[in-house]
Design goal:
By secondary structure, the chain is an alpha/beta fold. Strand 7 (137-142), helix 6 (149-161) and strand 8 (164-169) form a beta-alpha-beta unit. Helix 7 (178-191) crosses helix 8.
């Protein structure tokens, strides 16, 4: 073979792959080149594996026998490069022995088994770019060492579309005469007026060609490899030639940036090229990704506990006949099933081991260096993202028509009721329609509103990395500006530019408005909690008892009775604060009505004073809250915050399926939001909705069993619309803003920014919001955002008071009846005793009745107090005489 290749046998140990690597020996083959690209590829491979294991170099020369001997030593998977001459030998060995070969080399023709091809196919992007530039005549310079697959596809397409293609092989030129050959070649192209050239070569050969044509003006080159930035184009950067190409490694990707930082931190002695300022080439990136693929595959096999240990002479090509390895198919299947995110984007394979669902950036060389103008993927094909509407400034905008992408979302953009009677922009109305008109007026351009086709705001597919919605319209060059409720986020800012926010908002919770709670019979008790009422009752009883006790112990509460003539009744002391009088005093003070008796002692007055102070505060607080509780209709919400949502499972909750709200929960590191995202992602049926209208409808029909998470501005607007049955609960979960978006590098950005700032300073943005949110609201002034509504008192509010009044009156009548019956019975007994006494002694008609007072006093109501003498009756008269106290 023309090139010597080294074979490296790797024993993976330690870290996460310890168990898997102890039974797996991947091998690696590199073209032995002194060039920088070869060193970088080798260093990238060694760096990747050094994170997991040591490596052991084996043979340095590759022949059929040496390669075969390595199979015999237990190599289960091989990583390496090939060229046109070595590819057949390698594929033959791998196909026969069922050993997978992972390679970043050029894709092979047909469907090769046990070949995992890391390099995406460039045929699709190349044909799309030719069609974009509308080339129908061009020269095609190719390197035969890379294979002829791409050339054959170009020639077939040229035959179908009648292109004129001049194919020239530059791969067989001798090194000592290559410069002269290149100059002669381009002189012939100049004579034939062939100024459109495709260079299907690797970067080292592209560099040699460009060094000879750097002064040739008026040419347009397409470099047909995946490393446009890898080459040194500084010599022709300021010339007249146009240069386009493709880039598989996106250096703006955080994953690539992180790798660059680790790469530059390495020692150059151990990893040649690592410590330099040279960026990692696309072949080195493919090498790094290939190791990641092998790592994931063997990790999967280890988790599945698949035994891929060599037995007997399985996989030994020295055996006669050669015996394929039985477990080779399992390893190949595991490799093809790997789906990871690498330096070259999404890595995924089809059943034939070829890359699928990948994206390639389209590049152009400008005066300020390489610039991305779009990208290509298998779904949308060629997508141009650069804005050529305005070159460098906004002069002459009045003659341009700007495509404004937006989305039908009330109240931002809505179709008028009689939209069929209008055309173009006149068919729409709403906040963003008015805003777009103001922006166009301030910037001085004409515009055309265009509703986004898929009805989405914009999110990137995790697998294909393709943007949809309005963001996709800007990224793929289908629109020049987006005026819509488009949230400013980091992932969007990476691919498009935003103006200053024209509206601030946050994620909020929408639920179905609960039914207004009917006031209870005893709603007048609501101003104070149940516990407070219980404490008041116990305090009332406690104060009464304490007052009774201190009155008993204090000598100043005891006093003697005086008669009308001022004389003091001897041997008799009274105390007015018995237990019933104490209860009556406490009740009178609490009801703010007072009482005829008051404490005389200092201790009793202290008890009375603190009780009066207590009742003053309680009654004042109660009175202050009573009016609000009785005149306000309240709605009891089952959810008040995101915490309430997260800790329950009865009420489902979700977001828009494609938008910034979903992205917020997916990326959030806050425990609460991560818990909510885990629930939403696994909920069945799905809690995500395709449109906001669908989410609102689901809230209204769920009978309070579904909550919708959306921007607060939209939540407030919907709350203002009939049937007025939704409401916003809790505060905003985050803080963000809506911005006007433009493609990356668009000169419209500065003009739009200044227009937004000017409109904000003039107060026009607030006026527009009031116009479309509240002035056109359908749920009354103040919006439906109020959970309370003041109204006149109804009978149900104070029914309990009447019940207590009626109950008290009834209780009083019952007590009066009991007292009457009791007194009548006692009086009857007394009369009977008196009559019996008269029958015994008719001459003695005196009957004196007596009763004792509450505190032992003698009550004599039958005689006035002025009477002091009581008739004396001899004991032998046999009369039953009772004394009645007249005091």
């Amino acid at each position: 073979m023309s090139k010597s290749i080294s074979l490296i046998n790797l024993h993976l140990i330690n870290t996460h792959l310890q168990a898997a690597c102890q039974s797996a020996d991947p091998g690696a083959m590199f073209e032995k080149q002194p060039a920088t690209s070869g060193l970088l590829r080798h260093s990238a491979f060694m760096f990747t594996f050094s994170q997991r294991c040591p490596f052991l170099p084996l043979n340095k020369n590759l022949s059929s026998a040496s390669v075969c001997s390595q199979f015999s030593r237990g190599v289960y998977a091989i990583f390496g490069f090939y060229d046109k001459k070595s590819v057949n030998t390698i594929t033959s060995f791998c196909g026969t022995l069922h050993v997978s070969f992972i390679t970043p080399s050029f894709p092979l023709d047909g469907n090769q088994q046990f070949i995992i091809q890391m390099r995406p196919d460039i045929k699709g992007p190349l044909l799309s770019l030719i069609e974009y530039y509308k080339w129908d005549k061009f020269a095609y310079l190719y390197d035969s060492d890379r294979g002829l697959t791409t050339l054959q596809v170009v020639l077939d397409t040229a035959a179908e579309r009648k292109w004129q293609v001049t194919a020239i092989n530059v791969g067989n030129l001798k090194d000592e005469r290559k410069d002269e050959a290149y100059r002669s070649l381009f002189q012939d192209l100049e004579n034939k007026k062939e100024r459109r050239v495709i260079l299907d070569c690797e970067q080292d050969k592209v560099k040699d060609i460009m060094e000879q044509v750097e002064h040739v003006k008026g040419y347009h080159y397409i470099i047909a490899n995946l490393g446009f930035i890898d080459g040194d184009l500084s010599k022709i950067q300021y010339g007249g030639a146009n240069v386009s190409g493709f880039q598989i490694v996106d250096f703006d990707d955080p994953l690539v940036s992180k790798f660059d930082q680790r790469w530059e931190a390495l020692e150059e002695k151990e990893y040649p090229g690592a410590d330099s300022k040279i960026r990692v080439s696309y072949t080195s990136a493919l090498t790094y990704d290939a190791v990641q693929v092998m790592t994931e595959a063997f990790r999967y096999l280890h988790k599945q506990r698949i035994d891929f240990t060599r037995r007997a002479n399985n996989g030994d090509c020295l055996a006669n006949p050669a015996v394929p390895w039985a477990q080779g198919v399992e390893i190949e299947r595991a490799l093809k099933q790997v789906r990871v995110e690498g330096l070259t984007g999404n890595i995924q394979f089809d059943q034939h081991g070829k890359r699928v669902n990948y994206s390639v950036n389209i590049m152009e060389l400008k005066s300020n260096g390489p610039v991305k103008i779009g990208y290509w993927n298998e779904v949308d094909k060629m997508a141009v993202t650069k804005s050529d509407v305005f070159a460098n400034d906004t002069t002459g905008m009045e003659n341009k028509t700007v495509i404004v992408t937006t989305i039908l979302e009330a109240p931002y953009v809505m179709l008028k009721k009689n939209a069929d009677l209008f055309v173009d922009n006149e068919r729409y109305e709403g906040y963003c329609v008015d805003l777009a008109a103001e922006i166009a007026k301030h910037c001085g351009f004409k515009y055309q509103l265009k509703i986004v086709g898929d009805g989405k705001y914009g999110a990137r597919d995790a697998e294909t990395k393709i943007w949809n919605g309005m963001v996709g319209e800007l990224v793929y060059g289908k629109a020049d500006i987006a005026v819509a409720p488009l949230t400013i986020t980091l992932v969007r800012e990476e691919v498009i530019d935003f103006s200053k926010p024209f509206m601030s908002l946050g994620i909020s919770i929408m639920i179905k408005k609960p039914q207004k709670s009917k006031p209870g019979v005893f709603s007048f008790l609501d101003p104070l909690a149940y516990e407070i009422w219980m404490c008041i009752v116990f305090a009332y009883i406690g104060v009464s008892v304490v007052l009774f006790l201190v009155s008993r112990f204090s000598p100043y509460e005891w006093h003697t009775e005086e008669y009308e003539d001022g004389q003091i009744q001897t041997n008799e002391s009274t105390n007015e604060f018995g237990i019933f009088n104490s209860l009556w005093f406490s009740l009178g003070a609490f009801m703010r009505q007072g009482c005829d008796i008051s404490p005389r002692s200092l201790s009793g007055r202290i008890v009375g004073g603190v009780w009066w102070f207590f009742t003053l505060i309680i009654i004042s607080s109660y009175t202050a809250n009573l009016a609000a509780f009785l005149t306000v209709e309240r709605m009891v919400s089952p959810i008040e915050s995101a915490e309430d949502l997260a800790k329950q499972t009865e009420i489902a909750y979700g977001t828009l399926d494609s938008g910034s709200t979903k992205e917020f929960f997916r990326r959030s590191k806050i425990a609460l939001f991560d818990k909510m995202w885990t629930y939403m992602r696994s909920a069945e049926p799905s809690v995500f909705v395709k449109t906001t209208a669908e989410g609102v409808l689901r809230v209204r029909k769920s009978k309070g069993k579904y909550a919708y998470l959306l921007e607060s501005t939209m939540n407030e607007y919907i709350e203002q619309r009939k049937p007025c049955d939704t409401m916003k609960v809790g505060g905003n979960l985050d803080s963000k803003g809506y911005g006007i978006a433009t493609p990356k590098g668009s000169s419209l950005r500065n003009a739009v920014n200044l227009a937004v700032l000017k409109l904000n300073e003039q107060g026009l943005l607030d006026k527009l919001k009031n116009k479309w949110w509240y002035d056109k609201g359908e749920c009354g002034s103040g919006g439906g955002d109020s959970k309370e509504k003041t109204s006149a008192l109804s009978l149900s509010n104070v029914a309990g008071v009447f019940y207590i009044l009626v109950g008290g009156l009834g209780l009083a009548m019952l007590v009066a009846l009991i007292e009457f019956c009791y007194k009548s019975r006692a009086e009857a007994k007394r009369m009977k005793v008196a009559k019996n006494a008269q029958n015994i002694n008719p001459t003695s008609s005196l009957s004196v009745t007596g009763s004792t007072g509450e505190n032992g006093r003698v009550m004599t109501p039958e005689f006035p107090k002025a009477v002091h003498a009581v008739p004396y009756v001899r004991p032998d008269m046999g009369l039953n005489v009772s004394l009645t106290d007249l005091s």
